[in-house]
Amino acid sequence: MIPLRDNVPSRTTPFVNYAIILICALTFYTQLRQGPHDKSLIEQYGMIPARVNNPGQEIQVPLQRFIQTRSGLMQLMRPAAESPLGASATLLTCIFLHGGWMHFLGNMWFLFIFGDNVEDRFGHLGYLLFYLAAGVAASATHLEFNAASPIPTIGASGAVAGVMGAYMYLYPRANVVTLVPIFVFLQILVLPAPLFLGIWFVLQFFQGVATISTNESSGVAWWAHIGGFVVGLIVALVLGRAHILKPGVRTVRPQTDRITSYRVYPRR
Is 207 inside any structural domain? Predict the structure, then answer.
């Protein structure tokens, strides 16, 4: 499911959300300038669970080269590049790196759709602190479930998941215009935001559980998504019930041209 837009207007310009997207874009551009075979940025600023749990220990990362041994093919290894800021700092720095165009564009698009409205409620400084905290919490969750992994973890997905969790609580009557591929057809639907985000979370949860039961890694940090989403939801719930956040705005009915079906919650 690909969100196209929501029906919640923004009261203020989301400067922080735009700044985060710009920083991620500049970082991704720097990665592209290095070339596809230079992984130094990822190894230096990506979060390597084995390094965080064993500071000072040399971490070996695999090369794309194999040698033939009596027992079969063996992949060659080399030492990972050292982290200049220390292993613990990579729980934060890793959220600004991405592994490819689809990874980068997907994260930034979801952040663009949902982040402005969350910034509306948290305020600019509050949103910045919330986003960074959600990213660290997501990294810590991944670390808990992959403690010995030598694979660098990168991506804004966990922090963006935190934004989505907060959005789910803050805008329970919002609707999301969604592009849903069904076999070879593209269907445009207007879905309640809790349904859209709930389906997304359930998919992440079952994928995460599957990695535990099979003891295999798919290359996706499912538990970072889960941890970020849960933390974002809880933080928004606590601050919302404490009346610390700014009041919400009324949703507007989405345009129904070219929309095959829709559902609108009654306004408060």
Answer: yes
Domain that holds residue 127: 2-58+86-241
| Domain contains 233 | yes
**CATH number of the structural domain spanning residue 190:** 1.20.1540.10
- Written as one letter, the residue type at 147 is A
Residue type, 166: A
Give the tokens for residue 41: 């940025």
Q: What is the pTM of this model?
A: 0.86
Determine, yes or no, domain membership for 70: no
Contact (Cβ atoms closer than 8 angstroms) between residue 87 and residue 51: yes
Q: Does residue 98 sit within a domain?
A: yes
Q: Alpha-carbon distance 190 to 59, whole Å?
A: 47
Query: Under DSSP, is residue 182 helix (H, G, I), strand (E, B) or coil?
Result: strand
For residues 101 and 208, what is the distance between their CA atoms, to the nearest angstrom? 23
Place of tokens 């070996």: 60
pLDDT in tens, 57-105: 777 777 666 676 777 777 777 778 888 888 899 999 999 999 889 999 9
The answer to whether the CB of 243 falls within 8 A of the CB of 227 is no
Tokens of 161: 């998941």
